[in-house]
Amino acid sequence: MRYAIIGPGALGCLLAAALGDQHEVWLLDHDPTRAAQLNQQQILLTKNGRERPIPIRATANPADLAGIDCGLLCVKSKAVAQALTRSLPGLGGCRLIIAFENGIAHLEVIPALLQKIPWAVGVTGLGATLTGPGQIRFGGEGLTRMGFLAAEPDAPTIALLTAVANDFRQSGLPTEISMNILGPIWDKLLINCGINALTAIRNCPNGDLLNDSETISMLTTAVKEGEAVAKTLGVSITPDPVERTMAVCRATAANISSMLQDVRRHRPTEIDAINGAVVHLAETLGLPSEMNRELTRQIRNLEESAPLFP
Ligand code: PAF
After folding, report:
1. What is the Å distance from ligand 1's center to 192 Cα?
2. Residue 190 alpha carbon to ligand 1 centre in Å
3. What is the largest CA-CA distance in the chain?
4. Of ligand 1's atoms, which has the minimum distance to the CA of residue 248?
């Protein structure tokens, strides 16, 4: 299978590293200088204290993607429209795109842009930290789920998603096809609602959120507000999201959340796709969302207090 991974961030590089051993993998970067650097240096994956180079092909030219079978969209939520618009001319033969963004904002944007290419959603519990261009530190194992959100696709597209899931498994990434991908999307959204903004505000690794009762109470309220929205929308989420969020804090105790990584690098965060999206839906449904609104406000303040690099 020929893969194009759109976006050389932590997840994009981790998937490229995993699939790159056995498949032809292209990494599409909007920055030609960095793409040239990645081509020379390859992906450098540090796992269990050992660094290993993994060969991939990087390019900033979407025309190089002609003939790929599957695109894995791994850009930040806010960059989805720009990344797809830029890469679509090169994705002519592509038969499936799987979107791996955090939050739910991208689900509104993608249908209008991908009218000709079937798309699915990926939700992953894999953890990774980008330590430099193409350099990642493995952050922890996690199940990846993939599924179609929109109307039932045709048989070849279902077969292709099944083949991709097999490739992921053979590359060492536990992966399942989900017939109800909206459930896992919201399961992860609720975890991100509880962890990401708070770690960025407290400037601490995930595990430290459980060190004081005030932070635990904020985490609990943020997740419960999101849970009420999910239930009102009829999304079938896994029970007890607060306990599951705290379990993720413990399991990824030393991890620097993706939002704290963004804040530290002065990059725009995904607050609008996570806590901000919950606030928006809660307001529409007439449900309380004070904690998510407050977390969103504080993150926007952090973004404004330092210059941002897109
Ligand atoms: O966004 C993240 O950082 C991750 O989704 C999670 C689960 C919070 C772990 O750091």
Report:
1. 6
2. 11
3. 54
4. 7
Q: State pLDDT tens for residues 204-224.
A: 999 999 999 999 999 999 999
pLDDT tier at 310, thresholds 50, 70, 90: very low
**pLDDT above 90: residue 62:** yes
Please calculate the CA angle 175-177-182 and round it to the nearest 5 degrees.
Answer: 110
Q: Which domains are assigned to the chain?
A: 2-177 (3.40.50.720), 182-304 (1.10.1040.10)
155 CA to middle of ligand 1, Å? Answer: 34
Whether the CB of 192 sits within 6 Å of ligand 1 = yes
3-class secondary-structure state, position 28: strand
**Which residue spans within the chain are E strands per DSSP?**
2-6, 24-28, 43-47, 50-54, 57-59, 70-73, 96-99, 119-124, 127-132, 135-140, 144-147, 175-177
- pLDDT tens digits for range 65-117: 999 999 999 999 999 999 999 999 999 889 999 999 999 999 999 999 998 99
